[in-house]
Amino acid sequence: MKQIQMTQNSSFSLISTNKIIQMSDVWTSYDSKTFALEGINLSIDRGTNYAIVGQSGSGKSTLLKLMNGMMIPSKGTIKIDYVKPNMNNKKFKKMMHTIGYIPQSLGLVKNITVLENILIGALPRLNTIQSLLKRFPEHEIQEAKRIISLVGLSGKEERKAYMLSGGEKRRVAIARALMQKPTILLADEIVSELDHVTAHEIMNLIADAQKRMNLTAIMVHHDMQLALEFANRVAVIKDGHKILEIGVEGDNIVDFQTGDLNTEEIMEMYDNDPKK
Amino acid sequence: MTPKNNIVIGIIVALVVIASYNVDANPIEFVEGLPNLAIIVEEMLLVEPKYIPTALWAMFETIQMAFIGTVVGTAIALPLSMFAARNLNSKYVYAPVRALLAAIRTFPSILWAILFVIMVGLGTFAGVLAIVMYTVGFVAKLQYEAIEAIDSDPMDAVSSIGVSKWQLIRYVVIPESASHLLSQILYMFDYNVRQTSILGLVGAGGIGFYIINYIKFFEYGKAAVFMLVVLAAVLFIDWVSVKIRDKYIVKSQHGMAVSAK
Ligand SMILES: Nc1ncnc2c1ncn2[C@@H]1O[C@H](COP(=O)(O)OP(=O)(O)OP(=O)(O)O)[C@@H](O)[C@H]1O
Ligand SMILES: [Mg+2]
Q: Model's pTM, two decimal places?
């Protein structure tokens, strides 16, 4: 169990000023009557391994969808690498090419092969003719093969996606995101339904990629323990509010808001989680 | 059964009786006409086998017409369906395309055939054009409905990468709707063969031309040969369609018969 060390806010926030995600007073609604998120403030430093945890229905997936511009806040502002998300903005459209997003449902194309699914991540680098004829340049195919072996799918390149197991499907989704040469990786509960060993294997894979490519990984988790183990920052969401944000450095956990939480209290918030 | 149901059934029966009176549909005439049917059947039994080669050739022509109509019609329908799907286009694009397709579908193929006979003259070409039009109207509708039914997860995930619309169509829309397409084409071909068989009635070619002419001259025995050939051909095509469906479509949808590689 990790130890809690009380520290001032400043000791963490002064280190880096390069913010890749900034949200201030963000409200979102699916039906314009109720709000899924209510006044979220958060900022994420470039290169962070960030985790979002919370109970089912708390708004984790919604928060992630804001970070790639698939959802627009009803109120408040969000900046992704200092740009306001907007599909009609050329600069943002270009940015989308390098935001790897793995939705909770994975979003694989079922009737095409593993290799083709992964090559989709390279489509923004191809011209229209090449992509319509499925003429991928040799170096892209080599890169796809390299990623396939990285995620442990060698030999399954030609399998149709619907013929894969749940864990294999997750690996394909990760590989597609890595194929984008991402600067930001958004992953929504991709290990929640997996056994402990496979979950750790996949988390290590992402942690490696995150360090090697200096990418900002933002991952939604159900399991607080897993978040503390892999992330260096953890935000806790409850009923559309961010109720807690903690930093993890080695074995130390730092609460950024109150500074007076202990591990027991953090874990307690998880004991009333029905999914656990 | 509730009293309310009884009233509804009573009203429906009353409406059928009134409508029958209005259109002169008299069951007594049907019973009185039965002996005539016996005569026709009797004459039909005098099948004249020497017409079989002609009938087979006419059926072959009919199948070719249906084949061209189905292939060309589908080729025109596919791009149209991409513009008619609500999940791929803005209202200003899909609304007019859907209106056009709806207009095409209001005509049964036999009316298209009359129109094309007037335009390009009697013969098989008018029939082919009629089948093309009919196929465009229906395959496009079936296909845009299939596109709209595609799972939104891969659509959203791939769009979020910022790919172009053509890339989205090539890598998500086509693969995810292709299995429907094959079964629609088979269904349409099957249906078109039957439709083409009657286009001869208005002089648009095909085996129906022979059937209507022999019937006109009360040569039921000859007509019977042609009708039997149509029956055999339709059954055969049906059987082949089922085979193809089992082999390619059922498998891809349920993941049966996974090869052991
Ligand atoms: N497409 C949608 N339409 C309407 N409401 C939605 C939609 N998606 C989510 N919501 C609502 O928004 C709230 C937050 O949902 P969200 O999916 O962000 O939760 P979550 O924390 O990801 O939950 P889970 O752990 O179950 O995935 C919930 O109340 C949910 O009912
Ligand atoms: Mg969720």
A: 0.80
